[in-house]
């Protein structure tokens, strides 16, 4: 499956493609461009696991208490998903710096999504990197989202932050790769039962 914005870009690329047959060297540009667009805008179905799930594909490069940061490389799927069931209580967009996404830095352009349920507030932060040009949010305040539901997308390499409320513990470690929909945190009592 291809994300909606990706379909529009691919259609434009396909419309321009016949011109490249006239100027053969353009084929060297357009064919890889179409392949990269297909790769980047892919939106595969996922099996949603238990507990709190990852909001993004990528590599965990920071965990501190209730905060986890996931670096999304340019080749990762960039569709973001809800980590839990709940109501979108607040969305805050903040303009800011555009720095390479692999650098952890305050003041970066971001979109903060606050999802609330009976266990507390879960915060997802979509951060635009140097290459990323657009943060897209699919949800609005007041929406009820299901765990694993698509909530947005960041175009090209970027970073996603997940903050969890008290009573939960991250069960994945720095350096591990995750996919959106995979378990990253559980309640303390669920961990003690296992």
Describe the structure.
This protein is α+β, with helices and mostly antiparallel strands. The chain has two domains: 4-40, no CATH class; 52-193, Glucose Permease (Domain IIA). The protein has helices at residues 4-22, 27-40, 188-193, and strands at 52-53, 58-64, 67-72, 79-81, 86-94, 110-117, 120-128, 135-137, 144-145, 150-154, 158-163, 168-170, 177-178, 183-187. It has an eight-stranded antiparallel β-sheet, with no helix packed on it. Strands 1-14-12 form a three-stranded antiparallel β-sheet. Strands 4-10-8 form a three-stranded antiparallel β-sheet, with no helix packed on it. Strand 6 (110-117) and strand 7 (120-128) form a beta hairpin. It starts with a helix and ends with a helix. The mean pLDDT is 85.
Structure summarized in a few sentences:
With 194 residues, the protein is of the alpha+beta class. Helices cover 20% and strands 36% of the residues.
Number of contiguous helices: 3
As a percent range, the share of strand residues is 35-45%
- Give me the side-by-side strand order of the main sheet: 9-5-6-7-11-3-2-13
Q: How much is the radius of gyration in Å?
A: 18 Å
> What's the overall average pLDDT, rounded?
85
CATH superfamily of the largest domain: Glucose Permease (Domain IIA)
Query: Whole-Å distance between the termini?
Result: 36 Å
**How many domains in all?**
2
């Amino acid at each position: 499956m291809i994300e909606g914005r990706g379909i529009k870009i691919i259609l434009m690329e396909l419309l321009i493609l016949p011109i490249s047959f006239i100027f053969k060297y353009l084929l060297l540009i357009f064919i890889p461009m179409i392949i990269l667009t297909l790769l980047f805008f892919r939106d595969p179905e996922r099996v949603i696991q238990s507990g709190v799930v990852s909001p993004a594909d990528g590599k965990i490069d920071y965990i501190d208490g209730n905060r986890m940061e996931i670096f999304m490389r340019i080749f990762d799927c960039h569709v973001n998903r809800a980590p839990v069931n709940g109501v979108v209580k607040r969305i805050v967009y903040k303009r800011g710096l555009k720095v390479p996404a692999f650098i952890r830095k305050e003041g970066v352009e971001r979109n903060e999504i606050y999802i609330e349920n009976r266990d507390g507030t879960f915060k997802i932060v979509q951060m635009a990197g140097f290459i990323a040009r657009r943060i897209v949010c699919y949800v609005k305040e007041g929406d009820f989202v299901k765990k694993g539901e698509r909530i947005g997308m960041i175009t090209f390499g970027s970073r996603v932050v997940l903050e969890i409320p008290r009573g939960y513990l991250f069960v994945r470690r720095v350096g591990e790769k995750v996919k959106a929909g995979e378990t990253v945190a559980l309640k303390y009592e669920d961990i003690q039962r296992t």
